[in-house]
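Why run this: before we spend reagent on co-expression, it is cheaper to look at a predicted model of the complex and decide which construct boundaries make sense. The entries below are exactly what would go into the expression plan.
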Amino acid sequence: MPDPIVVLIEDEPQIRKFLRATLEGQGYRLFEATSGADGVVEVGSRQPDVVIVDLGLPDMDGLDVIRRMREWTDVPVIVLSARGGERDKVTALDAGADDYVSKPFSAGELLARIRVALRHTAGASHEADDAVFQVGSLRVDLLRRQVFVDDKEIHLTPIEYKLLTTLVHHAGKVVTHQQLLREVWGPSHTEQAHYARVYMAHLRQKLEAEPARPRYLLTEPGVGYRLAAE
Amino acid sequence: MSIERPDPEALLARVKAEEARQHRGKLKIFLGAAAGVGKTFAMLEAVREQKADGIDAVVGYVETHGRAETDALLQGLEILPPRMVDYRSTALRELDLDAALARRPALILVDELAHTNAAGLRHAKRWQDVVELLDAGIDVYTTMNVQHLETLNDVVAKITGVVVRETVPDSVFEQADEVELIDLPPDELLERFKDGKVYMPEQAQEAVKNFFRKGNLIALRELALRRTAERVDAQMRVYMHEHAIGKAWPTAERLLVCISPGPESARLVRAAKRMADRLGAPWVAAYVETPGQLQLPADVRDRVTQTLRLAEQLGAETVRLPGEKMSDAILHFAHDRNVTKIVVGKPRRRLWTRILIGSIVDALVQGSGDIDIYVISAEREQQGVPQAPLGRRAIPSDWAPYGWAIAVVAVATGAAWLTLPFFGLANLVDLVMVYLLGIVVVATRYGRGPSLLASILSVAALDYFFVPPVFTFAVSDARYVFTFAVMLIVGLVTSGLAARIRTQAEAARQREQRTAALYAMSRELASTRGADKLLTIAIRHISEVFRSQVVVLLPGPGGALVPAEGGQFTLDSNELGVSKWVHEHHQPAGLGTSTLPGAAALYLPLQAPRGPVGVLGVRPADRHALDAPDQLHQLETFGNQTALAIERAQLADEAQQNQVRMETERLRNSLLSSVSHDLRTPLATITGAATTILENGAKLNDRTRRGLLESVREEAERLNRLVQNLLEMTRLESGALQLRKEWHPLEEIIGAALSRLGKELGDRRVETRVPPDLPLVPIDDVLIEQVLVNLLDNAVKYTPGGSPIRIMATSTGEAVTVEVADHGPGLPRGEEDRVFEKFYRATPGGRGAGLGLAISQGIVKAHGGNIWAQNLPEGGVAFLFTLPLTGKPPASVPADA
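The model came back. Tokens follow.
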């Protein structure tokens, strides 16, 4: 299998320097762009497997880059954002980004996100064989609709199950409240964020050893939820 | 005369005046001897020149009377639209002062300086409009005739026989920066007049024809020339004085002019002003309030008030002197104040009265010592103002005292009758005494009129009842006539004296009352603190003394005037406008003044030593009560006291604020030094570790290198947290913190905080006790996560390595309480509250800037909750905070099985 291609759209040279070292160290083939316009061109010409975009670009809003790209490609997009801008992150995710890391971030964090992103694209092409999802002591059998923790079956209500499977579908990636509501309850319920929270609380109670210190069902305040994939 | 060094005080005043002049606009007056000499024409020519030089010039108001040549000069000039005022079916054109002030040109033309404005305009006179324009820094060109000068008004009337009503105070003329005399030989002017090119619309045709006679024109021209020359002379003297040149320096003269109720006083005042100007001397206008004067009719007293006002406008100091005899009072005052010259009017009494009773002039001359007395001739006024002879008393409207007079006489008669058996008729003397006693009683209690009646009745009663033949008015012995005559005279004199004493006592009592009122207010103000209390006291006193409703306006937060608490009447927008004007121009306006006289109340500026502090609004019950200058002075005195008190309160406030400011400064310095340290320390580690690896790369073994890199990572994170904290603190302080509250399950936030601190917590035991049925809390999840992170971070920092941490959440119906407890050393006793202060650290020099808890407190408080710390009996400290469950919880989620 050829090495995955990564396009990095980042104007700050120091950040590019260490990202280059990290990504090439992992064996990815890296192409860089220093502005939004150049970045879009690179994405168009290189056909990457994952795109990393900094939200604070000099020439155009990172959001516009994402929107432009989404007009003609589904390539996974990871955004680099400044902490404290939860709104920006949610907007980016709604505009089509798949995940984010907050600056300052550690290399390990970013690599984990990239792995998840690649898995999903790979998974999309491999498809249905992944009928069982496993992380730690949590096992979800999508075919038989059963959930096990430490091999003990846990009974979930239909909505709780739907919620869990949605998270499994996006395993490792962050899912915004809006997304969850849309996918579980339907588009007409996008205003009732507390629905998602209450059901997440139920899920945690049932699946986590310590609901107040979850291992799998992670909360990202202000943004959404993430099901740990590793 | 010796050369005197210029008085430093006077010089300083002059320098200040110079400075003020720099900011003031410059006034140029085009002066003419009469209408038609071409002043407007010359003015327009001058402004065209200015415009050609690039000056921003605008025409405010110009009267061309339809003359073609003048109209032509208006071409190309920017003309401000006039303000149209409706007056009796015509529309009058007036200068639009507010538009001119808004336009703010460098130079504005305003024709006819002496014009009286239509009713409803801010000022009564156009020259007042011009003064306001000058104060705003706008230069003004204007025109006027020599007859419009206040002090020359009567002289011109004498020359021409035409009285011009519109006048301009001499002060305006004297303070003009330039006066250009537009001179036209009388023959030419007459030609113009015959050609119909001269307009004097405010005069009747006949009067105008009388005006334009050659003799008049020559005299007027001379007057104009002379006045202009005097101005030059004055300027020269000022110049000489400033440069201490020359010897023509007058010694200190002081003038005193005596005002009488007669109509010639106005002329006298003007003459005195001219004399004072020539001498360069200060002058005083005095009016002696003898008891006789107090009984004059209201219109005569009004005239005195107006004359005093005129004198004040012309620059005199005005005084009302109490006294028995006019000449004594004046001489006393003159000697007190080192007056050098007294100006008095020619006596009007007939010769024989003067011989008998003596005239004021003679008395003055006799007692003057080394003071010069100037006696100015008093001609009768052209207009027939009825002259009230001195000494006429007001028609009494009250008949009761007369009734009492009759009663007393009756009692006296009765008493006298009773003594008859003892003394017999021969002792008429005793009977006379009884009646005299009666007269004196009536005089002291009821005044002059009743006592006169009593005198006459007493004589009649004595005649009728006691003088033979009894019970007739006939007299048997001629010497009784003498008795009657003397008795009548004595009665009259006594009643006169007693009445005087009474009125004087009354006047003294009134004066004492006023002073006492002022003293009472001052004393109460001095012992009070607090601006609003001061205002209440001031308002109460002023409204009592002046029988008015009072309001005080103070500048509000935006600078605009706002009525303060405790005002006794409300102001509509008009009145507010007047008060605003007063505040800006530091001059009284409103009822009884010549600025905006149509207002419902009088507004005085409250001036304190540091500057204006507000405006005092006074609405008297009697509209004319405040017209007299001395009432106005008294009111101003009360106003000054109030202003001083307000300023004192303000200063006290400022002192307090300064204290607070100093504290803040101290804290800020503390921040700077602390931040500086806390930023540098991690940076030092990062730089050190990184450069070590760079320098010694190959020589280091793997473990050391890894260790150094770990340090770099840790310190970078520490820096990150510090920067976060500083940003959060700034946001909190500047109020930019915006809560996005939604209903969250608390455990979710706790979980997020714990995973954020995963690394720091290491392998400590973290016990969480959150009941599964804990209600949803309305919080901003990002911020409350921050609070938990801060508390947990603290727990990690201040407790030893493996020591456990406990997180608990409980709910009362109204709020949720969260507790983060550790098993560390706990807080120093008594420091439980101080921990939340900015930059406080339990161990000095500890890590972190000490902001975390302060930020947490800010966030919790913004949610309406409380946060506090308490040392635990088993060791360690617990931090607790509450989150109120306000608002309606969301509809419960539909369960599904």
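The first helix of chain B runs from residue 8 to 23. Chain B has a mean pLDDT of 81. Bring this page to Monday's planning discussion.
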